[in-house]
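General statements about sequence and structure are easier to judge against a single worked case. No coordinates are needed to read the tokens, only the vocabulary itself. The sequence in question and its structure tokens are set out directly beneath this paragraph.
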Amino acid sequence: MVNNDIMIKKVLIANRGEIAVRIIRACREMGIETVAVYSQADAEALHTQLADEAICIGPAAASESYLKMDAIISATIVSGADAIHPGFGFLAENSKFASLCEQCRITFIGPPASVMAAMGNKTQARKTMAAAGIPVIPGSDDAVFDVSQGQEIAAGIGYPVIIKAALGGGGKGMRVAVTAAEFASAFLTAQKEAQQAFGDNAMYIEHFIEHPRHIEFQILADQEGQVIHLGERDCSVQRNHQKLLEESPSPALSDELRRQMGEAAIQAARAAGYVNAGTIEYLLEPGGRFYFMEMNTRIQVEHPVTEWITGIDLIKEQIRIASGGRLQLTQDQVTFQGHAIECRINAEDPEHRFLPSCGLIQDLYLPGGKGVRVDTAVYSGYVIPPYYDSMIAKLIVHAENRDEAIAKMRAALGEIIIGGIVTNVDYQYDILSHPDYRSGEYDIGFIDKLSAAK
């Protein structure tokens, strides 16, 4: 993909879990030393054992460890690492952290802080995309802070509307108002959540698209302004705005629509001045119209889906681009093979309101074979702590076509044994068995339909 002149010699991974393990493995293959950071709760975590060095950065709470910028910067300096990979979550999209790395002359394996800040603010991102001619959902031009202002904007846009945290993500600070009578309550609830989750009460309002699909395009951009896309991922299987299953290619896209959305993704990345790996996220209406939703300025949880169908290692590309490497493939040279599906395996109980399940893993068997990949940081005897995200593994399969990929994923799910805790493995099996999913006729309301049927 890019040239092999790697200037980075030692990478500190500012993360935990399977993504930390994934980054360590990529670095090892590239001959790059690694430094793991960990909280006191993660002293026995797999990433601390696989890295060349491991440094404790604080107590169990993420706010006192994985979100503590000064501790991570100090660990980087003490260890002699010359770069930081943030993974996803925690500080991965924090422009202040990226800026701090730049000030300390530490290579941040991601986009420049200025680009991250611009794309992290949904209002500013919308303006950037609209100015570049990218279709955007009709909505507020500026941040909204009070109910009366929001009501006036919503009336102009037309109901239903969705109210979102301007600096948010992960489904937090988000509410739908179907009618004007619902607006005030929805706005105040979303704003309170936004303040608690992000320390900011700026909101924005946009028209709520009914029965859309969530389609995202993976892009790569080097420091010389070259940009390519690596195809799409369909992320429409979601619960509470959290993705559960992703696949590529999307069964909803024609070749022509895929071309249009891919070209728009490249145009969007160029408009943002983007560098490194990123994702352009769209909402797709049933009639085929698509709208820019947001840009994720980091590696995605579901990046293995794209790796399967393109044969490109996205973590290695991130590192090479951060080292100044130039893309060596043009868009015409990017090829796509087969079909890939990813299921997120979470330690949670679908039968009891998806309550988190923590504790000792007493027995563990994970599937394998041709076209089966498992990204995880758990092992038999590992104790899952109660302080972090419930995802404990990602199961990814690849086959020649969608029907074969579904069959392979069902078979792989049937082999998983994780004793001692409760997981959503059976729930994922139910998703793959549902006729709407198997036919490809689903949208972001699919999980609600699945739940109602039970």
User: Anything to note?
Assistant: The chain has three domains: 10-109, 138-207, 213-453. The mean pLDDT is 95.
